[in-house]
Amino acid sequence: MPEALQPSGQPTRRAAIGLVGAASLSAATSRAPGRKGLRPKAASTYQFIRRSGPARSIAYLNGAVVAVFTDNARSVAVVGASRTFSEPAVTAQVHQTSWIRHAPYTWTASSSSAAWVAPWLDQQRANTYPDLLSMAMEYTAGRPIINDSNGIRYTGDASYGPIGDNGRSVGGDIQDYIGASWAFADGVTRTARADYLGCIDCSGFVRTVLGRRMRYPLLSGYTAGPGLPRRARDMAAFAPGAVVLPDTGTRPTALGALLPGDLLFFSTNGDGIINHCAFYLGVDTAGKKRFLSSRKTVDGPTMSDVAGASILDGTGYYASGLRSARRI
């Protein structure tokens, strides 16, 4: 499990607690009155209500919603303190109380009775370590470059790809961004291209956040397997997880099922082929559904409206091209 790093490149003490919510599942401890030593603190008692579209379990505590677990996915939306996501290139902000964590196991309809669930959810509700959304924002313009203890790039301002004779090249993948070889879940290892250091295209961005930061398995190629494929079109077709918005070949209009952290897929060339992907951030201060993605024109990850509004509302370039969504 990777460590959270300070700008100096040294791991923080809090990082050892767990990056993605899949660390120790033991309950918190408290000192027993009148006795030496520690004893486990009882886990909270949660109630779970089943819902469909997609199939999911809503966790309640004392009558309030505290988390959403989705069948066939590890991504969990945990209710917590409000954060604000912003970028200098856009006036709208996203205030978000959903913290997107990855559970240690894929959720099923019967998972609510599993022994790990209550202690894990207790831990995540108290955890203020960066979640998927805040990690993804760490690759936007101006964010500091941070290397790990081996000198390998960990996070920070990302580009899309180098500029060649015909404009900006096809973008980089995870190994290009970090500048080091990456061993994929299908047994293939790919080496970094030196001129692509710090570069990630739309799917490379998604893979870097999920693979490098959340430790989600990645595939080297374009087919189904035990992880996330390379291209946006293959993620839309084969990625693990739950289908939130199915691809019917037309723009979906009922977007109420979306949760922050969902992967969005777009077809913007008029040929019906998925050619772009993004993370859904949530509703912004203008009331629009905003997303975050890496783009060629903007040269890297952005939530801005430069070269196309990063929103799902209206008739803009990306809004009109939306085709489907998955929850990993």
Give me the Rg, rounded: 20 Å
Q: In this structure, how is the largest beta sheet organized?
A: 6 strands, antiparallel
Tally of DSSP helical segments: 6
Arithmetic mean of pLDDT = 88
Write the H/E string, N to C: EEEEEEEHHEEEEHEEHHEEEEEHE
Query: Strand share of the residues?
Result: 25-35%
Structural class: alpha+beta
Share of helix, binned: 10-25%
Which assembly state applies to the chains in this document? single chain
Chain-wise SSE layout:
Blueprint: E1 29-31, E2 38-40, E3 47-51, E4 56-61, E5 64-70, E6 75-87, E7 90-102, H1 117-125, H2 132-137, E8 146-147, E9 153-155, E10 163-164, E11 167-168, H3 174-178, E12 182-183, E13 189-190, H4 202-213, H5 232-238, E14 242-245, E15 263-266, E16 276-283, E17 289-295, E18 300-302, H6 317-321, E19 322-327
Antiparallel strand pairs: 1-2, 3-4, 4-5, 5-6, 6-7, 8-9, 10-11, 12-13, 14-19, 15-16, 15-19, 16-17, 17-18
Any overview of this molecule?
With 328 residues, this protein is of the alpha+beta class. It has helices at 117-125, 132-137, 174-178, 202-213, 232-238, 317-321, and strands at residues 29-31, 38-40, 47-51, 56-61, 64-70, 75-87, 90-102, 146-147, 153-155, 163-164, 167-168, 182-183, 189-190, 242-245, 263-266, 276-283, 289-295, 300-302, 322-327.
